[in-house]
Design goal:
The protein is of the alpha+beta class. It is 33% helix and 25% strand. It is built from 15 helices and 23 strands. The chain has a 7-stranded mixed β-sheet with strand order 11-10-12-15-16-9-14. Strands 1-6-7-8-3-13 form a 6-stranded mixed β-sheet, sandwiched between helices.
């Protein structure tokens, strides 16, 4: 393997704070136990003439054009972006002549290799490049970028511009550069938008489940987020989506999300399904064509109470989507203060475990969309190549498995296409859906769209479409504060905090919460200290909440501390709620 070097100089050097989108991803990279998850890899066709010199020329044009490709990030508090006015980067040159699999397979292998290395955000440019040749002729260009510099929309722009340059076309003027987006975000109108987003997140977080997926506390400890992907493709589903969209007045994207939401509500037993939907945040005219990282989360809850038909779910998704996406542009530090603050008040650990990413509009908006892409992000994206062998192009519907990806959430849905073909990929934690259940979920999704296209479909009939059963929850499971919790998990949380010290947690019916979690402690325990320690130990426990109430008894039971009756026989000295801002009131002489 050899390499060649591309230099750039004479460009403006500048620095400044990060935009919201860049800060959001830089934060995620710095706290992730595996930052390579946020590396994006692509394989593009290379020009067939001109050799490495031509590729170096085109790379030089792109790097000088986009400041995001010349940016390093100082991880100070707050972080700072530095745009280089001069520098150089090396491009690997890889000959595929002796590889039996061919140059495309070598390019994909190279992309995965380059993607597996952590970027030094402060010390290296935010991309890596390689050229794969065959017989001395360049065949493929490999791009790997850190998500800190680019989001998926920018990846689409990169491919569009690369294709234009290869074809000899002139590129249009650039949009705003990242430093200029920071200036835009300081404008009065955008500041008001951000403040409104924080209010929206706070309001929604007070009423959504802490987690959509609740594997038992007794299940084996999770050691990996490496999940196989499921590809769901259909040539008939686009017609079904259009029919439902025409009847309901919703977009086909909203219909697709509604179908996922309905099935997930059926599966999980939650009356509220909350989706974290990725938003590209390019609706402001000045940001169209922006090359950088703007993507953030839209929090989109759908409550099923009062909904009778699938059309009702579509309408609910449609009405919920507008404020959710409008509230997806925010200061990430501020929104995490909101998330952590509300979580502490509720005694929950909010889990971003259901993620939806609609990328279908990106390919549709491209000048020359590559509808036969072999794959897209989050894996290696290879535009313009046919699906892997084994997929029958003549079949109307197909469900097949994709290579495993390291994705740290329990259910990640990527919607790629809704034009001539519907294409959706799911990466699902096997504790959420095993292999057979995931495949049945895909079949049920297509069946739901088919029957809903024929007319209004009652939600009560949804179980007839699928063998996928709701999650079984037996004794010891309770619905508390919108969340399914397992009493054993709550007791394990308090045992981790208190060790062998006598205590007991019980679940008591509550008109507002569904069930109130009560922790019984003997004097002289400090309930507020116990609650603070329980909150600190809560993250990652998706079936536990911190207790809502603490009862301080005069003493520990003489007998079994795990017997509720034994605690009830003891006088209560005081009661403390599990909310930080509320204190203790005396209840001396009351019975628990």
């Amino acid at each position: 393997m050899s390499q060649f070097t591309v230099s750039f100089s004479g460009l403006p050097s500048r620095s400044g704070p990060l935009s919201f989108g860049h800060a959001n991803i830089v934060r995620a990279i710095t706290i992730d136990d595996d930052p390579t998850r946020l590396n994006l890899a692509m394989v593009f066709d290379a020009p067939g003439s001109g050799g490495p010199e031509r590729i170096a020329e085109l790379l030089h044009l792109l790097v000088t054009r986009h400041e995001a490709l010349r940016t390093t990030y100082l991880l100070t508090t707050p972080p700072v972006q530095q745009i280089a006015g001069e520098g150089e980067f090396a491009v690997e040159l890889i000959a595929a002549d002796e590889a039996a699999a061919g140059p495309l397979a070598v390019a994909e292998q190279t992309a995965r290799r380059l993607r597996s290395r952590v970027f030094d955000l402060a010390g290296e440019l935010p991309f890596r490049a390689a050229v794969v040749t065959e017989g001395g002729t360049p065949r493929h260009l490999v791009w790997v970028v850190t998500h800190a510099a680019m989001d998926v929309a920018a990846c689409e722009t990169l491919h569009t511009e690369w294709s234009a340059l290869v074809a000899g076309r002139t590129l249009p003027p650039t949009g705003l550069q990242p430093v200029e987006v920071v200036e835009l975000e300081q404008s009065a109108s955008i500041r008001r938008l951000g403040e409104g987003a924080l209010r929206y997140w706070e309001a929604q977080l007070r009423r959504v489940p802490q987690a959509m997926f609740t594997p038992s506390h007794h299940a084996p400890a999770k050691t990996s987020w490496l999940h196989a992907g499921l590809s769901i493709r259909s040539r008939t589903a686009p017609r079904h989506l259009e029919a439902i969209a025409e009847r309901t007045g919703a977009s086909t994207s909203a219909v697709a999300l509604a179908a996922l939401t309905a099935l997930l509500g059926h599966r999980t037993g939650h009356r509220t399904v909350v989706t974290t939907s990725l938003s590209g945040n390019r609706v402001v005219r000045k940001l169209r064509g922006f090359f950088g990282s703007l993507a953030q989360d839209a929090l989109l809850p759908v409550e099923f109470d009062g909904l009778d038909s699938f059309d009702d779910v579509v309408h609910k998704v449609r009405s919920a989507a507008l404020p959710a996406y409008r509230s997806s542009w925010f200061d990430p530090t501020a929104v995490w203060q909101v998330i952590n603050g509300v979580s502490a008040e509720r005694g929950i650990s909010f889990a971003r475990d259901l993620v939806f990413n609609d990328m279908s509009a990106l390919a549709t908006a491209a000048e020359s969309p590559d509808q036969s892409a072999r794959g897209r992000l989050p894996a290696v994206w290879i535009p313009g190549h046919q699906p892997p062998p084994g997929e029958d192009p003549e079949r109307a519907d197909s469900i097949s498995w994709l290579p495993a990806e390291d994705i740290p959430c329990r259910f990640f849905a990527c919607l790629y296409r809704m034009d001539e073909e519907f294409e959706l990929a799911l990466w699902v934690d096997p504790t959420t859906l095993d292999t057979a259940e995931a495949e049945e979920f895909g079949r049920a999704l297509l069946r739901l769209l088919e029957v809903a296209a024929e007319g209004v479909f009652a939600l009560k009939d949804l179980p007839s479409l699928t063998t996928l059963q709701p999650v079984e929850r037996g004794a010891g499971w309770f619905l508390s504060d919108h969340s399914w919790i397992e009493l054993d998990a709550v007791r394990a949380l308090l045992s981790d905090v208190l060790g062998d010290a006598p205590h007991l947690v019980t679940a008591v019916p509550d008109e507002r919460l569904g069930h109130r979690l009560v922790c019984h402690l003997p004097a002289p325990a400090d309930p507020q200290d116990v609650h603070e320690r329980a909150l600190a130990a809560l993250p990652g426990r998706v079936t536990a909440l911190a207790p809502h109430q603490y009862l301080l008894h005069a003493a520990a039971p003489d007998g079994d501390a795990g017997d509720p009756a034994a605690w009830s026989a003891l006088p209560v000295l005081g009661e403390t709620t599990g909310r930080r801002q509320e204190g203790v009131r005396s209840t001396e002489g009351d019975e628990a």
